[in-house]
Structures are given as C-alpha cells and as structure tokens.
Amino acid sequence: CSHDHDSCSCGCEHSGGLTKKVILYYILGALLLLLAFLGELQQLSLWVSIPCAAVVYLLFGREAWLGAYNNIIRKRFFTEFTLMCVATIGAVALGEFADAAAVMYLYSLGETVSGEAYSRSKKNISRLIEITEENVTVVCDGASKTVPASKAKVGDVISMRVGDRIALDGVVVDGSGYADTSAVTGESFPRELNVGDVCLSGIALISGALMVRVTEIYENSTASKLKKAVDLAAKQKAPTEKKITRFAEAFTPIAFGVALAVLVIGLFIKDSVGDALRSALVVLVASCPCALVLSVPLAYFSGIGRAAGRGIVFRGGQVIDNASLLGAVVFDKTGTLTSATPDFIGVKMGAESPISEKQLLDMSKAALLKSPHASAKSFCEKYTASSHYKAEGVKVIGGRGIVCAVGGRTAAFGNRKLMAELGVKVSGTDQSAIYAALDGKFCGALLFSAKVKDNALGEVSALRGNGVVRVAIMSGDTAGAVKHVADVVGVDEYYSELKPDEKLERFNTIYREEKKAHPEKTVAFCGDGLNDSAAIARADVGIAMGSGS
C-alpha cells in the first residue's frame, strides 16, 4: 500500500484478519480472474471473459474507487487511486477486460496482506506496551479498596501480592519479596525488594508481599514516560515513511499530462479520434503505478513469509530494505547477547583469606544451597563438586545475604551491605558478586555475569562481514559486567549503567554520528525489555527479541 494506514484517505477498512472466509474470497477471485484470461485466449470474451472480469472488478475494485472518491471530496484529484481507476476504465475501453480486473484484484490483495501485517504489529505493540495494572489496591486504616491506578494519589499505600504488576512508582514501606524487573530495566536477575527500596511501575512481584507508598501519580510513572518516549521516537520517522505517497502525488499528474499530450498530438497525426484516444489510454494503462505499488509488497510478502518460518517477524517491507543497508548496530546486553540467567564465572580470593579456593567453593556450596537468590542457585548448578561441609542455622537477611555456621565457624555470604554491617572489609570488584567471610575475615568473592549466548560472537562477526562497520553495546548493568560481554563478543564500544532515557540519548548520539558520516547507511537497535522500546522505535531498523517485552 502506498499510503499510511494511520492516516489512510481511501476510506477502506484495514483491520487485517486473514480468516478462512477472506482466504476463500481471494481464491474465488483468483479462479474467476484465471477464467477471464483463458476466455480472452480462447476468444470467448462475451460469454466467459467479460462476465468473470466484471464480477472480479466489482468485488475487488470497491476500495480503489472509494479511495478516489474520498480524495476528490478533499480536492485531491491526482492520486494513485484516481490514476488506477482511470487506467482500468482505459483498459475496458481497449477491450482488455481481464487486465482491468487484475489491477483491482491485485490491489485489493496487496491491501489485505499489508493491512494484516500492520494490524497484527499494531495490536502486539499496543498489548505489550500496557505493562501496568489498570487497578490498584489502596490500604487505609486497615481497610482496603480497589481503585483505578489513575485515581491513586501521592502518599497512598498500595498492597502488592505475587503475580501483581506494580502500576505506580513508589517506595516499599512494609514487607519484602523478589521482583522481575526485566520489562522495565531489561535486566534478567530478579531484584530483591525490602523496606526503603524504590519500586518502578511495570515490574512484577514473583515472591513475597509488599506495601508500597506511591511517590508519583500515574501520568508521571516510569511506564507512562516510556510509552510517551516510544510515541515520540516513532513520530521522528514519519517523513521517511511518506516518501512513496509524495512520489505518487507528483507522478500521477505527470502521467495524466503525458496522456493528454499524446491525445492532442494524436489528433493531428492519427487517422481517427478513436486511434488517438486509444494511444492516450495505452499511456495511462502503461503508467498505472500498480506494478510498483502492488507487485513490490507482494514480493516482500514472500520474503516475510520465508523469514517467519525461521522465527523472524517483520513489521513491514521497508524494514527489509533498511536492513540491507545497515552500517551500524547497537545491542542491548541482557536478553540479546546474553541469556536470561546469571552465570558463575569464577572466584576472586581475598589477599589474606584464611582458607583455600577449594575450601571457599565447598563452603559456599553448602551454604548457598539454602539461599533463594538467583545467583546462589546459578552457582550451585555450575559448581557440581560435592561438598563435605554442612551449613547449620542458616538465616536469610533480606536484601543482603545469609549467615550460618559452616564447619563449626561463623560464615556470611552476601553483598557489600552485609559485609559492611558485619565489619568485614572486602576487596572490590566491578562485577556482580557474592562476597564470603569466615569468622569476620574476608575470604573472597564468587563472580557472576550474564551468560553470553553461544552464537553471539559468530553473529557479530557475520554482521561485520556484511558491511556493518560499527557495533556497540548499551546496558543498565555495571561496567564490569558489560565489559565482560563486550570482550567475549569482540566489541570495543560499550556503555554501562544507563537509565532508559540515557540509553535513548546515547543512541541518538550514535545515530546522528552515523548519519553524518554515512548518510546512505541505516542504523539498527536490538533490545530486550521495555526500556529499549524508545530506541527500537527511533532506529531505522528496530529489533525486539522474542523473549522480551
């Protein structure tokens, strides 16, 4: 389709939906069209070709005629719809009934195919962007009531249970639990929430129970801001997407002008008015933009179908063109280059550790088997050696770690906050870590990183082999974690600890630099998580991983 579905002026419906009824409708049209062409070949126009062509024309030409009518009412006389209608009238005048019907049939089929792809994409985006609950449970003086999230006020206390998705930004005032923050932050590790911790709208509670005091009204929530950012970024591409329409607006009056000139000149050099008119109509038929407007979407549709079989869903044909011209690709880290689970990558021993590395690993295995933290579970799965130690009196300290007795000695495993509370001085690391202490002495740190996907290095190399000259990584994770992934996949340019708005700002900088240096090339962003949505929409090619939001 050569016009924008959001501001369509043809007056037809683009709701999509390739139902069995619609498919049978187009199969019937194709059979009738085939009979029309066969009738012309067998010189059975009167009894076969004309009736079949007329049925096809009436069934499938409504959208083009309605589009021409609506544009004429708006005083837009020279559009692709007008040219299509006049060209088919010309084909009928020349006796090419099947050709006239074919133009309308192919146009309608192209509209239905592109409308289905557009409608499905739009519905998916609308559904996925609505990541917050419509209602919240407000608790006041021991009583609770359900109200729309938009009606909650700053200072209200709302209760959260397992499975709830937090609708408003706030601070935890009671309870504890683990939350899946991937929809907002893009990071895969569940985040532990305790009293005093900040909650962003859009995160989902996967364990525990919370009481959250609202700090921002619904319109100012994180999820609401992300939605606005997506809308703003998408609008920045609108001028590019309207190039085909602008071409049609300029081409159509030229085609009419050429046809008129042929008619006038023909009146002087032809033997009859009929011959001159026939020449002018041939020009109109030949200049009908259907070959460009219709055959191109159908060609792309075959490519889109082939890609779908490999798990790739394109929003439209323009993305295929843009992808073939890639000059730069920016990756989010988590869920794109890395898997969604933490990976134990090694140990960093303390300089004055009272135990060996093997003892630290064995003691950690005994203690962390009883920890609910995702990193602890990852370590226990990765470190398969059996441990003769036994952890006793395990106490889970919310948001910090665990303390217990191992081998008759007091042990602690957790984050920096736990070590500081116990008066243990640790050797720092910029990677995700579980620190270990024994009898108040620092032993070492278990190091973790998001696991780099097995094919990540090969895919980055393949991109460079296909003309991509700049590859960068952006993430909200720590500098050490991002650097580790960058080193593994062979990327020199990376940015860490970026908030959603900072990620978009940084991407815009890269986008401007690349457009200035290589205006003929396109820029892609590949992300996993709602915080990437604005950058995905802003990019020439936006790639959303199937496992993300």
Could you describe the 3D structure shown?
It is a single chain. 47% of the residues lie in helices and 21% in strands. The protein is an alpha+beta fold and 549 residues long. The strands form three sheets. Strands 1, 2, 3, 4, 5, 6 and 7 form a seven-stranded antiparallel beta sheet that branches. Strands 9-14-13-12-11-10 form a six-stranded antiparallel beta sheet, sandwiched between helices. The chain has a five-stranded parallel beta sheet with strand order 16-15-8-17-18, with helices on both faces. α18 links the parallel β15 and β16. The longest helix is centred in the N-terminal third of the chain and has 33 residues, at 97-129. The two termini are 29 Å apart. The relative contact order is 0.10. Residues 1-16 and 236-241 have low confidence and may be disordered.
Features:
single chain, seven-stranded antiparallel β-sheet, six-stranded antiparallel β-sheet, 20 helices, elongated
Number of helices: 20
Low-confidence stretches: 1-16, 236-241
How many strands, what sense, and barrel or not for the largest sheet?
Answer: 7 strands, antiparallel
Distance between the first and last residues' Cα: 29 Å
**What do the pLDDT scores average to?**
81
Share in helix: 40-55%
Query: What does the radius of gyration come to?
Result: 32 Å
E-strand count: 18
Structural class: alpha+beta
Residue share in β-strands: 15-25%
Overall geometry? elongated
Layout: helices, strands, pairs:
Elements: H1 20-41, H2 45-60, H3 62-73, H4 80-93, H5 97-129, E1 135-140, E2 143-148, E3 157-160, E4 170-180, H6 182-185, E5 191-193, E6 198-199, E7 204-214, H7 222-235, H8 238-241, H9 243-269, H10 273-287, H11 290-293, H12 295-308, H13 317-323, E8 326-332, E9 338-349, H14 357-368, H15 374-382, E10 391-397, E11 401-406, E12 409-414, H16 416-421, E13 432-438, E14 441-452, H17 456-465, E15 470-474, H18 479-489, E16 493-495, H19 500-517, E17 522-527, H20 533-538, E18 541-544
Parallel strand pairs: 8-15, 8-17, 15-16, 17-18
Antiparallel strand pairs: 1-2, 1-3, 3-7, 4-5, 4-6, 4-7, 9-14, 10-11, 11-12, 12-13, 13-14
Helix pairs in contact: 1-2, 1-5, 2-5, 3-4, 4-5, 4-10, 5-12, 9-10
